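Why show two proteins at once? Because comparison is the fastest way to build intuition. When a single record is shown, students tend to memorize it. When two are placed side by side, the eye starts asking what differs. So, the first record is below.
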Amino acid sequence: MSNTVEQVIQSPDKDAIGDMATYCVGCGACAYLDPAFNIVKNIDGCYQASVQGSIAKEDVVNSACPFASSINEDVLGGELFSKQAGVHHDQYLGYWLNAYVGYVSADGWRSRGSSGGMVSWLASKMLEDGLVDAVIQVKDGPDPEHMYTYQVSHNVDELKTGAKSKYYPIEMSEVLSYVREHDGKYLFIGIPCFVKAIRLLRRQDEVLNKRIRYCIGLVCGHLKSDFFAKSEAWESGVPLDDIARVDFRHKTPGSPASDYAVEVRRTSGKGPVIKRTAELSTTNWGLGYFKYNACDYCDDVLAETADVTFGDAWIPKYVNDGEGCNVIVVRNQDVQDLFDRHRDELVLHDSDSAEVYQSQAGGFRHRRQGLAYRLYVHKQRGEWTPTKRVKPSLDGISDQRQKTYAMRTILKNESFVAFREAVKANDFSEFRKHMKPIEHSYRRVSTSPKKRIIRACKRIVKCMLPAGAVARIKKLMGGGGVANRTYSVIRSSAICNTKAWLIPVQNNGLGFSHAFCVSGFSARKQRYLLAA
């Protein structure tokens, strides 16, 4: 292949279905720059660049593609933010001034948003304070095959219609053409690779450099194919031909922030269907179903080139707030000044790099350590990959972790195959049938023996106790999950008479320090962890 962008679009990969993979995220930067490129959805519901004819601006396109450019996030961040007074630098956050966890307390922004309402609120304040004239954001698209698209909002009322996260494929070539043709000061909102593409474009396009003044970044686990939206709706009971739109972050009152639902609107005009994501088989983010392949070759979780980044505060002391909280990383003093001017509309708790990292710890492991593993595998096979800050290496990666990362690639690839099989059979159960043994193998590889024991005990207790009793135990234990207290049971109790396996624990005031399973019990009173 003659140029880097063409390698991004398709390169040999023995792990991929058909032995060829794309590292293209379909952002549209290339199509904005050169008419030889076209952005289309492939058979897996992912946007991807295709080339028709000769490329007129090869070097320019290579420099603007987030997966082809040799300019990384550290370089871009240094250019943008390093000269500010009081700036810090961190290997995970990039350059940053301040970090917070919080939410908007004014005007219903929080209830309209996915988490704390901070993204839409900040965009509205930038409009009202005159920092920008318009906002480039993802909003409702024209039809079920284009549920969401990039559009421009010119006032707060238009802005409000674009609230909430959309786990859906999008591209930005058309909206960038709009910016080129319409003067003004713009704010861009996007995921890390899209923000990086905007920064790269601004370095060589004077029009975009002048007009796109600020970028809001969204913390990103990975980008989804449109199979994700379709699978959620279909498994919720809405046939494929009746899916109009999916609200991916429908809040459920009284539940933790992580226990949200999807709302599916129907083309038939019937009422919407609401289903908790915990009841759906494709919504476990860690399994990586319908993930763009490019996302496994990105090392930027926190949109390091954005002026400010917002994400979900997946932190124990905040996650039980069902209204949602944002983790916030501020990099631009203009944004900090705006926060300070309107502090009375916000509830902000000071944070730090360690807490921000913890909110996305799993994502960082997968895209730093896991990326080092994936790059090493490709290097050993002589296969091309994008140049990243992370270097190919197996240092510090145990055999179990290597197998875990390898299985994640299989899960990602096979999810597309399984969904196409389900569509062909017109039966979603075919997807579950295909993926269940693969998921089982993954859990066996990725879960330590200790965690398997605890999970088995949880399942046993749930099966043996009435639902009401399980709910009461969860309430006593602080909401479920890992227990934070210990309780005493005796042989005469209903639980013990069932000969269930429970976990004896040492009560150290913090939960448990050592755990093991036993079958049957002595007559003496003993402490057990009720893992409901």
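Second record. Ask yourself what differs from the first in the token line.
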Amino acid sequence: MLVQANTISRSLLLGFESSGKSTLFSRLSGESVGEETNVKGSTYSIRLNNVDGQILVDAPGLNFSESITNQMTINEVEKSTNIIVVVRGTHLQEELTKLYPLIQHKQRRVLIVATHADKMTKKSKQLLSEAIITYKLPLFIVDTRNLSMDIIQQIMELLRKQKNLSYEKIQYLLEVDLEKVEPKELIFDYPLVGPIVAIISLNSMFLLPVIAAYFISTYIQPLFDRWFIQPLTHLFSETHPFIEDIFVGDFGVLSLGIYSFIWAFPIVFLMGCSTALADETGLKDRIIDVLDPYLRKIRLNGRDLIPIISGFGCNVVAVFQSRSCSLCTRKQCVSFISFGSACSYQIGATLSVFNSANNPWMFFPYILVLFLGGALHSRIWYKNNSASNSVAGLRRSFLQKPTIKGFSFKLKSDLKQFFTQAIPIFILICFIASILHFIGIIEYFSYLFLPLLNLFQMPVEAALGLAFSIIRKDGILVFNEGNGALFTQLSDAQLFILVFLASTMTSCLVTMLTIWKEFGLKSAAKFVYQQFLTSIVCTFSILGGVYMISELL
């Protein structure tokens, strides 16, 4: 068995970000999302797919800054039997010059795939086609979004035959008189209007799915209550109290699990559609380019915006994605994610709480304050202006029409991660929390928050919700207990402050463990106390703002 495993070819797709590498991977692997494998504790960064006895490897795209993902990809070069060098045909010589030194002295089968063929000039395609025939270059000129089965078979077949690409052939390619094609300037590139359009586009990517998800969840929640929750509660009421508590108790796997799913899944799905569409069209890269100078004012850069956006789906995934950030700004980025990027469970829970309190409008100022708090958090704790000195490595991408295949591939990846990672962890935590609740430990733990609640003049009944929000951010749903009895004791301002405090006081337990795994215990502890202090400062600021507004009115 060992001998057989060693004979399997491992083919790495090597290229820069936005080169069409992941799209090519999806086409070669028949649109299957493949499996994610552990790399330094991550289940995110390296994607594998077994195709015709060959393992295709989609490693993170290289960028022009010092990052962990760059090193991961370079390490994959050492493991691979074959290398598929993916470069944009519009910038072939520029990108090949930077990539070839990584494989120059490696005894690997190498072939080159020039993407964006539809954006190349006729002259460049003609010169490359002649070179392929004359010098028998292992080069394919393709539009990865419309890749024929014939080309796919040729690529896979050549992987079995091709030898190491000689330096002479590379030199010839670099000397061919190819024409470089830059993406056209659009409204994003205008000095004053561009940033405004980018911010509007970014808000639309987030707010429209959230609004749609809110209406969907509001509609289906009563149906699930009637047809699932109530019958299940009646069914388990005749079982042992311990069993009843685990499945349909306050933190029950079925009761809280179904309720959280109703509010989380629509957001995950619609946010996945939104980000897949932005990624497939190139819109996300344009937004990053435009907002880069402004993010530097809060110790971040444009590249950090990618994991921050992902954080609105899942903070854990976003922490892994931060490996593509510059080493100078990665901690700042993770710190912002932990504080200001509301994950899908947190969004669903806050929407549910505000809706139960008949104040759904509060969600919009809540998100705004969350973002401003994250910016303040980054400014307070990261004094050095390292982001300004780091290499952003931004490249203007082409805007293009989305394809159904590309869109569905990205969406399937997000949904697979939700069902295989987030859901099992949530069920496990519900199970553990139910046991702790049954034996009374969570109630004792909640007493730790009584001084904090007294400080902000909150009722003691809110302590349990604060305690459970540390375990998972949808623990905020505990505030809905007793048909919203807690809301009768709170003013609108107190409700807003309570939800904000539960959201930002700490990140959820899973995110904290992920940060610990990525940065070590000392750094994780530093993240926790810094976030707690910022949350308290922001809460007092909100109180002060509410007081000033009430005085003016």
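One difference worth noting in the second protein: The first strand starts at residue 9 and ends at 15.
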